[in-house]
Amino acid sequence: MGCFECCIKCLGGVPYASLVATILCFSGVALFCGCGHVALTGTMTILENHFSRITADHAMLTDIVQLMQYVIYGIASFFFLYGIILLAEGFYTTSAVKELHSEFKTTVCGRCISGMFVFLTYILGIAWLGVFGFSAVPVFLFYNMWSTCAAMRSPVANLTSIDSICVDVRQYGIIPWNATPGKACGSTLGDICNTNEFYLSYHLYIVACAGAGATVIALLIYMMATTYNFAVLKFKSREDCCTKF
Protein backbone atom coordinates (compact mmCIF):
# COMPACT_ATOMS: atom_id res chain seq x y z
CA MET A 1 0.00 0.00 0.00
CA GLY A 2 1.39 3.39 -1.03
CA CYS A 3 1.74 6.44 1.18
CA PHE A 4 -1.14 8.20 -0.56
CA GLU A 5 -3.51 5.28 -0.09
CA CYS A 6 -2.48 4.99 3.55
CA CYS A 7 -3.17 8.70 4.17
CA ILE A 8 -6.57 8.45 2.50
CA LYS A 9 -7.43 5.44 4.63
CA CYS A 10 -6.34 7.24 7.81
CA LEU A 11 -8.35 10.33 6.89
CA GLY A 12 -11.36 8.07 6.47
CA GLY A 13 -11.12 7.28 10.18
CA VAL A 14 -11.59 10.89 11.26
CA PRO A 15 -15.01 11.55 12.87
CA TYR A 16 -15.68 14.78 10.98
CA ALA A 17 -19.02 15.44 12.68
CA SER A 18 -17.44 15.27 16.14
CA LEU A 19 -14.48 17.33 14.94
CA VAL A 20 -16.71 20.12 13.59
CA ALA A 21 -18.83 20.01 16.75
CA THR A 22 -15.71 20.25 18.94
CA ILE A 23 -14.37 23.29 17.08
CA LEU A 24 -17.79 24.94 17.18
CA CYS A 25 -18.24 24.09 20.86
CA PHE A 26 -14.83 25.47 21.85
CA SER A 27 -15.45 28.66 19.87
CA GLY A 28 -18.97 29.15 21.25
CA VAL A 29 -18.01 28.50 24.86
CA ALA A 30 -14.95 30.76 24.56
CA LEU A 31 -17.06 33.61 23.16
CA PHE A 32 -19.80 33.14 25.74
CA CYS A 33 -17.49 32.90 28.74
CA GLY A 34 -14.96 35.55 27.71
CA CYS A 35 -17.41 38.16 26.46
CA GLY A 36 -19.94 37.42 29.18
CA HIS A 37 -17.35 37.88 31.92
CA VAL A 38 -16.20 41.27 30.62
CA ALA A 39 -19.77 42.41 29.88
CA LEU A 40 -20.87 41.65 33.44
CA THR A 41 -18.02 43.77 34.78
CA GLY A 42 -18.99 46.65 32.49
CA THR A 43 -22.63 46.36 33.50
CA MET A 44 -21.75 46.67 37.17
CA THR A 45 -19.66 49.75 36.40
CA ILE A 46 -22.62 51.39 34.64
CA LEU A 47 -25.01 50.57 37.48
CA GLU A 48 -22.64 51.83 40.19
CA ASN A 49 -21.85 55.07 38.39
CA HIS A 50 -25.30 56.03 37.11
CA PHE A 51 -28.17 54.03 38.62
CA SER A 52 -27.26 52.85 42.11
CA ARG A 53 -24.62 54.95 43.82
CA ILE A 54 -25.22 53.46 47.27
CA THR A 55 -23.31 50.18 47.58
CA ALA A 56 -25.85 48.59 49.93
CA ASP A 57 -28.60 48.93 47.31
CA HIS A 58 -26.89 46.61 44.85
CA ALA A 59 -24.87 44.43 47.25
CA MET A 60 -26.89 41.32 46.39
CA LEU A 61 -26.54 41.99 42.67
CA THR A 62 -22.77 42.31 43.10
CA ASP A 63 -22.64 38.91 44.82
CA ILE A 64 -24.75 37.35 42.07
CA VAL A 65 -22.52 38.78 39.33
CA GLN A 66 -19.40 37.50 41.08
CA LEU A 67 -21.00 34.08 41.44
CA MET A 68 -21.90 34.07 37.74
CA GLN A 69 -18.31 34.93 36.85
CA TYR A 70 -17.05 31.99 38.88
CA VAL A 71 -19.64 29.77 37.17
CA ILE A 72 -18.28 30.98 33.82
CA TYR A 73 -14.82 29.71 34.82
CA GLY A 74 -16.32 26.31 35.64
CA ILE A 75 -18.27 26.16 32.38
CA ALA A 76 -15.16 26.91 30.34
CA SER A 77 -13.10 24.23 32.12
CA PHE A 78 -15.85 21.60 31.95
CA PHE A 79 -16.59 22.02 28.25
CA PHE A 80 -12.91 22.02 27.36
CA LEU A 81 -12.58 18.56 28.92
CA TYR A 82 -15.98 17.33 27.72
CA GLY A 83 -15.29 18.36 24.13
CA ILE A 84 -11.99 16.48 24.12
CA ILE A 85 -13.65 13.38 25.62
CA LEU A 86 -16.44 13.41 23.03
CA LEU A 87 -13.94 13.87 20.22
CA ALA A 88 -11.92 10.91 21.50
CA GLU A 89 -15.13 8.87 21.82
CA GLY A 90 -15.95 9.76 18.23
CA PHE A 91 -12.54 8.55 17.03
CA TYR A 92 -12.94 5.19 18.76
CA THR A 93 -16.52 4.48 17.76
CA THR A 94 -16.72 5.76 14.22
CA SER A 95 -17.44 3.08 11.65
CA ALA A 96 -14.40 4.06 9.61
CA VAL A 97 -12.09 3.20 12.51
CA LYS A 98 -13.78 -0.19 12.82
CA GLU A 99 -13.03 -0.86 9.18
CA LEU A 100 -9.39 -0.03 9.81
CA HIS A 101 -9.22 -2.38 12.81
CA SER A 102 -11.03 -5.54 11.90
CA GLU A 103 -10.46 -6.97 15.37
CA PHE A 104 -12.52 -4.23 16.97
CA LYS A 105 -14.82 -5.68 19.62
CA THR A 106 -17.49 -4.00 21.69
CA THR A 107 -17.96 -4.58 25.40
CA VAL A 108 -20.82 -3.96 27.77
CA CYS A 109 -18.74 -1.26 29.50
CA GLY A 110 -18.06 0.48 26.18
CA ARG A 111 -21.75 0.48 25.27
CA CYS A 112 -22.69 1.84 28.71
CA ILE A 113 -20.14 4.66 28.41
CA SER A 114 -21.43 5.54 24.94
CA GLY A 115 -25.01 5.52 26.22
CA MET A 116 -23.97 7.76 29.12
CA PHE A 117 -22.51 10.28 26.65
CA VAL A 118 -25.78 10.25 24.69
CA PHE A 119 -27.82 10.97 27.83
CA LEU A 120 -25.41 13.61 29.16
CA THR A 121 -25.21 15.40 25.82
CA TYR A 122 -29.00 15.58 25.58
CA ILE A 123 -29.17 17.06 29.11
CA LEU A 124 -26.47 19.60 28.30
CA GLY A 125 -28.24 20.52 25.07
CA ILE A 126 -31.45 21.29 26.95
CA ALA A 127 -29.51 23.25 29.58
CA TRP A 128 -27.75 25.35 26.95
CA LEU A 129 -31.05 26.20 25.33
CA GLY A 130 -31.92 27.82 28.64
CA VAL A 131 -28.52 29.55 28.75
CA PHE A 132 -29.09 30.84 25.21
CA GLY A 133 -32.45 32.28 26.19
CA PHE A 134 -31.03 33.79 29.38
CA SER A 135 -28.15 35.42 27.49
CA ALA A 136 -30.66 37.20 25.25
CA VAL A 137 -32.14 39.07 28.25
CA PRO A 138 -29.26 41.58 28.73
CA VAL A 139 -29.16 42.09 24.95
CA PHE A 140 -32.84 43.06 25.09
CA LEU A 141 -32.29 45.45 28.04
CA PHE A 142 -29.31 47.17 26.43
CA TYR A 143 -31.14 47.38 23.12
CA ASN A 144 -34.05 49.17 24.81
CA MET A 145 -31.67 51.71 26.29
CA TRP A 146 -29.77 52.14 23.02
CA SER A 147 -32.98 52.59 21.00
CA THR A 148 -34.20 55.20 23.49
CA CYS A 149 -30.97 57.16 23.09
CA ALA A 150 -31.19 56.83 19.32
CA ALA A 151 -34.73 58.19 19.39
CA MET A 152 -33.59 61.24 21.35
CA ARG A 153 -30.85 61.97 18.83
CA SER A 154 -33.11 61.48 15.82
CA PRO A 155 -33.82 64.79 13.98
CA VAL A 156 -37.30 63.59 13.02
CA ALA A 157 -38.32 62.79 16.59
CA ASN A 158 -39.76 66.30 17.15
CA LEU A 159 -39.38 66.13 20.91
CA THR A 160 -40.40 69.09 23.03
CA SER A 161 -38.37 68.03 26.06
CA ILE A 162 -35.85 65.20 26.13
CA ASP A 163 -35.80 65.33 29.94
CA SER A 164 -39.16 63.55 29.92
CA ILE A 165 -37.55 60.48 28.30
CA CYS A 166 -36.17 58.14 30.94
CA VAL A 167 -34.89 54.62 31.38
CA ASP A 168 -35.69 53.11 34.77
CA VAL A 169 -33.72 49.92 35.37
CA ARG A 170 -35.62 49.29 38.61
CA GLN A 171 -38.61 48.06 36.61
CA TYR A 172 -36.52 45.13 35.37
CA GLY A 173 -35.80 43.95 38.89
CA ILE A 174 -32.05 44.48 38.52
CA ILE A 175 -31.85 46.82 41.49
CA PRO A 176 -34.42 47.46 44.28
CA TRP A 177 -37.01 50.21 44.03
CA ASN A 178 -35.35 52.25 46.78
CA ALA A 179 -32.10 52.50 44.81
CA THR A 180 -30.90 56.04 44.12
CA PRO A 181 -31.32 57.45 41.51
CA GLY A 182 -32.57 54.28 39.83
CA LYS A 183 -33.24 55.94 36.48
CA ALA A 184 -31.58 58.20 33.93
CA CYS A 185 -33.34 60.88 31.90
CA GLY A 186 -32.58 63.25 29.06
CA SER A 187 -28.98 64.32 28.60
CA THR A 188 -27.83 62.05 31.43
CA LEU A 189 -29.20 59.05 29.55
CA GLY A 190 -27.49 60.24 26.40
CA ASP A 191 -24.17 60.52 28.23
CA ILE A 192 -24.55 56.94 29.49
CA CYS A 193 -25.12 55.66 25.96
CA ASN A 194 -21.96 57.46 24.83
CA THR A 195 -19.72 55.82 27.44
CA ASN A 196 -17.25 53.13 26.48
CA GLU A 197 -18.68 50.78 29.11
CA PHE A 198 -22.13 50.89 27.57
CA TYR A 199 -20.91 50.46 23.98
CA LEU A 200 -18.54 47.63 24.89
CA SER A 201 -20.96 45.78 27.18
CA TYR A 202 -23.80 45.97 24.65
CA HIS A 203 -21.75 44.43 21.86
CA LEU A 204 -20.11 41.89 24.14
CA TYR A 205 -23.53 40.66 25.25
CA ILE A 206 -24.48 40.23 21.58
CA VAL A 207 -21.31 38.20 20.94
CA ALA A 208 -21.88 36.15 24.11
CA CYS A 209 -25.44 35.38 22.98
CA ALA A 210 -24.10 34.31 19.57
CA GLY A 211 -21.54 32.12 21.33
CA ALA A 212 -24.29 30.44 23.35
CA GLY A 213 -26.20 29.82 20.11
CA ALA A 214 -23.08 28.29 18.52
CA THR A 215 -22.69 26.02 21.55
CA VAL A 216 -26.31 24.85 21.18
CA ILE A 217 -25.64 23.98 17.53
CA ALA A 218 -22.45 22.15 18.53
CA LEU A 219 -24.34 20.11 21.11
CA LEU A 220 -26.99 19.24 18.53
CA ILE A 221 -24.24 17.90 16.28
CA TYR A 222 -22.80 16.02 19.26
CA MET A 223 -26.25 14.55 19.92
CA MET A 224 -26.48 13.19 16.39
CA ALA A 225 -22.90 11.88 16.47
CA THR A 226 -23.15 10.19 19.87
CA THR A 227 -26.57 8.70 19.07
CA TYR A 228 -25.21 7.29 15.83
CA ASN A 229 -22.12 5.92 17.58
CA PHE A 230 -24.27 4.26 20.23
CA ALA A 231 -26.51 2.72 17.58
CA VAL A 232 -23.46 1.37 15.75
CA LEU A 233 -22.11 -0.12 18.97
CA LYS A 234 -25.44 -1.84 19.61
CA PHE A 235 -25.45 -3.18 16.09
CA LYS A 236 -21.86 -4.37 16.43
CA SER A 237 -22.67 -6.17 19.69
CA ARG A 238 -25.58 -8.02 18.04
CA GLU A 239 -23.33 -8.89 15.11
CA ASP A 240 -20.73 -10.31 17.49
CA CYS A 241 -23.40 -12.39 19.25
CA CYS A 242 -24.63 -13.78 15.94
CA THR A 243 -21.14 -14.76 14.77
CA LYS A 244 -20.53 -16.70 17.99
CA PHE A 245 -23.25 -19.13 17.06
From TrEMBL:
SMART domains per UniProt: PLP (SM00002)
Transmembrane segments: 19-40, 70-92, 113-143, 204-228
Pfam families: Myelin_PLP (PF01275)
Compartmental location: Membrane
Cellular component terms per the entry's GO annotation: membrane
Keyword Transmembrane helix: yes
Keywords carried by this UniProt record: Membrane, Transmembrane, Transmembrane helix
Membrane topology: Multi-pass membrane protein
Record family assignment: Belongs to the myelin proteolipid protein family.
Name assigned to this protein: Glycoprotein M6Bb isoform 3
